[in-house]
Amino acid sequence: MKRILFLGVGRRVELVQAFRSAALTLEKEIMIYGEDVSDSAPALAFCDRRFELCSVRDKEYIEQLLKKSTAENIDLIIPTIDAHLQILADNRDRFAEQKVKVLISSPEMVGMCRDKRLTSRFFAECGLYTPMPVSDWKLYKGGYPAFIKPKDGSSSIHAYKAADERELEVYAGQLEDYIVQPYIDGIEYTVDLFADFEWNPVYVTPRRRISVRAGEVLKTEIDLDRQIIDECRRLADRFRPCGPITIQLIRDYAGKDWFIEINPRFGGGSPLSMKAGADSAAALLQLLDNEMAEIHSVLDGAVYSRFDQSVCIRSGFNMEQVRGVIFDLDDTLYNEKEYVKSGFRKVSEYLGEESAESQLWEAFRNGKPAFDEVLWRSGRFKEKEACLRIYRNHMPELHLREEVEKIIGALKDCGLKIGIITDGRAEGQKNKIKALGLDSLIGEENIIITDELGGTAFRKPCDIAFRIMARRWELNYENIVYIGDNADKDFQAANQLGMQSIRYKSEDGLYQNGDYDGITVTDIRELWKYLGITGSELE
């Protein structure tokens, strides 16, 4: 499994989804961590885990990031906002020493990108056209309209078009450190360039910017213009990028390309190039595994339009709206440790060693690979596969948690639909369901084992099972409450869809790590009170 950390993840939902989709296609297992100064950043809801850090302005920032990244075994750090770029570039070798890859270009190139004056000089050295800037409006002789902006700005913030010298003076008075350059009228392009770790361009994808809001594209058209591609490859030869860079240029009406700026990170619209076939997320996952990046054809002329969509960051609760309840299975409706012990008991019977059961449990309790530990010690390691088959396929001795059967019955009596969504190998999960009597209590038509939908890729946090259940019940998402235990993966899909949710955190559970911002209960009767079932209904 590769662990990927997005810094300043903010609204980058599409980018996170692109990596998730690439991992699914490539059949690679990844865990996505997200960091942001705001705990309500929408993209955090699409990450597997949150990664809390001090401010990037704090003098302890790098030490804290390095320490936490090492502790969490982070494989790759991907910065997404300008504030992180220079400090990460300056310290990337320190992270590399700890086997943590930072997707950032050299400190010199990142510094050049942050100063628009140096950027223009770099373009000129590459033999490219660029509107040369000056740092004092009084020295500007480039004609009007003129363009004035901060020398290290981004997202078109405080960037103005001045019609004449009077307007230019006014705007200059509003900015402390700025540049002035000729305004270029023409067609705006963004180029998403992605290079491998040896600085070789994998994809060079020009996009025509049809509609823009606050510097970020809303509508774009893929335009594989040969002139632009060749110019950007020439630029890349001198830049030597590591991973993504985003290049902005304007083609004037005489067909001349004027290069404006470079952002050494994934641009906000980079997922659009990925959708068209320039799948840099997939290429990056392959490069992380020391594989050659597959290069796909790109859909020239494809047009993409973006839109805003809400996501539930913190689930509220209103039982009056609830028409259906979906339960997780493992460690929610029964104690998962009971299943583990049951499996170890069956394996012990197969091995013919009474002490094997307690040895397996002791190894498991200490966080060690139980079968490896015990079988190796007893000289029977070659029987590991046989032991695994017995463990995974045995008919377990299990019991529902106290009051569960009564509660399910009471919910059904209230007219609510009841279902289960559970991950795991199909045969093992079916045996658990049968042993607990849930097949008759709930009904097989209301139970979804995600692996049966199409393998491990459909396990939580994938939302397909939740969509199927809602469609099957003909209920809106907000009319369903999901109850689970594992904060790392159980609630992501439900919250993204807009379901209500409750975490049941038992003292003896296996999956007690991870924070959950919504309702958390530690006692079964407390859970049932949230569901509106109390007193006589439980007798």
Short overview:
By secondary structure, this protein is α/β, with parallel strands linked by helices. 36% of the residues lie in helices and 20% in strands.
Keywords:
20 helices; six-stranded antiparallel sheet; Rossmann fold; disordered C terminus; D-amino Acid Aminotransferase, Chain A, domain 1; alpha/beta; about 35% helix; six-stranded parallel sheet; about 550 residues
* CATH homologous superfamily classification of the largest domain: HAD superfamily/HAD-like
| Domains, number | 4
Radius of gyration: 28 Å
Helicity range: 25-40%
Number of helices: 20
Backbone structural class: alpha/beta
Query: Biggest β-sheet: count, sense, barrel?
Result: 6 strands, antiparallel
What fraction strand? Answer: 15-25%
Number of strands: 20
Average pLDDT taken over every residue: 91
Strand order of the largest sheet: 13-12-9-10-11-14
Q: Describe the global form.
A: elongated
Amino- and carboxy-terminal Cα gap: 47 Å
Describe the structure.
- This protein has 4 domains: 2-104, Rossmann fold, CATH 3.40.50; 110-131 and 184-305, 2-Layer Sandwich (D-amino Acid Aminotransferase, Chain A, domain 1); 319-334 and 398-538, HAD superfamily/HAD-like (Rossmann fold); 337-393, no CATH class.
- The chain has helices spanning 13-26, 61-71, 85-97, 107-114, 116-125, 165-172, 226-239, 270-275, 280-288, 336-351, 354-365, 370-377, 384-393, 404-413, 426-436, 438-443, 450-454, 464-473, 492-497, 524-530, and strands spanning 2-7, 30-34, 49-50, 76-79, 101-102, 146-150, 160-162, 178-182, 186-195, 201-213, 216-222, 243-252, 257-263, 303-305, 324-327, 417-422, 447-449, 480-484, 500-504, 519-521.
- The longest helix is centred in the middle third of the chain and has 16 residues, at 336-351.
- Helix content is 36%, strand content 20%.
- Strand 9 and strand 10 form a beta hairpin.
- It has a 6-stranded antiparallel β-sheet with strand order 13-12-9-10-11-14.
- The protein is elongated, with a radius of gyration of 28 Å.
